[in-house]
Design goal:
It is built from five helices and five strands; from the N terminus they run H-E-E-H-H-E-H-E-E-H. The protein is of the alpha/beta class. The chain has a five-stranded mixed beta sheet with strand order 2-1-3-4-5. Strand 3, helix 4 and strand 4 form a beta-alpha-beta unit. The N and C termini lie far apart (about 40 Å).
Length: about 150
């Protein structure tokens, strides 16, 4: 069941990324009503295309839980996942995904395509548009500041 407080925490992580010169995306993973892992974009500082918020959160959760299956875990992320992240979310067996702003350029959870709806043996619940205005405003402010 979706909890707005977890999206607020993901938004705080996105703000940290913004202040660090990164595209402001933050993610948290929740298990048993507790945040067990977090992530934020670090691609610019890390000079690595893999350093997305979702990938960092999944990596941290796997380390904490001692395995790659994140069963009974939910992810909250401020931006609709890209193809790479949507695939990682699906493959990590997360129970549910909740995201903020839709990404009409790269989003693969409904905007451009939907990797979560591929015909496979594992399905994930998902819902977008949570705190969409706040998440979208942070992204807009960031990109305006680059111009």
């Amino acid at each position: 069941m979706m909890n707005i407080d977890y999206m607020k925490e993901a938004l705080n992580l996105a703000k940290e990324a913004y202040l660090d010169g990164e595209v402001p995306v933050g993610a948290v993973i929740v298990k048993s009503n507790k945040i067990i892992a977090t992530g934020r974009n670090r691609r610019e500082k890390g000079k690595n295309a893999l350093y997305h918020a979702e990938i960092e959160a999944i990596n941290n959760a796997c380390k904490l839980l001692g395995g790659w299956r994140l069963v009974d875990c939910d992810m909250y992320v401020t931006l609709e996942p890209c193809p790479m992240c949507a695939g990682a979310i699906l493959n990590s067996r997360l129970n549910a995904l909740y995201f903020g702003a839709y990404d009409y350029n790269n989003g693969c959870c409904g905007s451009i395509d939907n990797i979560l709806e591929l015909k496979n043996n594992f399905k994930i619940e998902y819902l977008g548009g949570i705190m969409q205005d706040e998440c979208k405003a942070l992204l807009s402010d960031f990109f305006k500041s680059l111009r």
